[in-house]
User: What shape does this take?
Amino acid sequence: MIAVRKGKTKITIDYSKCGPDGVMDPRECTKCLKQCDRPVFHLHHVIVDGDDPWDPSYWQVTPVYTSQCTRCMRCIEVCPVNAISVSW
Ligand code: SF4
Ligand code: SF4
Assistant: This one.
């Protein structure tokens, strides 16, 4: 049974820790995506400012469907660089 959570959940990713400019390439980790049993996160390519905005190595995780979050905090526990925060 999925727990019902009241109020809006805010999930943020610190892209200085995981993302195109971060210390972690999310494609080499994906722990948050594997741990979350809800369709919250999306791993996708991004276009950034710079010499080659279309560089295929630019990827990030975006919390898209935050209303699906059950606030279990497993994503925070498994993130190796503490890039995720969940609040409400
Ligand atoms: S807190 Fe739980 S449900 Fe919410 S995004 Fe993280 S792993 Fe998914
Ligand atoms: S668990 Fe953390 S480091 Fe790994 S992909 Fe998710 S946000 Fe990035």
User: Anything to note?
Assistant: The beta strands are 10-13, 41-45, 59-63, 84-87. The pocket of iron/sulfur cluster (ligand 2) is lined by residues 13, 18, 24, 26, 29-32, 61, 78-81, 83-84 (CB under 6 Å). The mean pLDDT is 92.
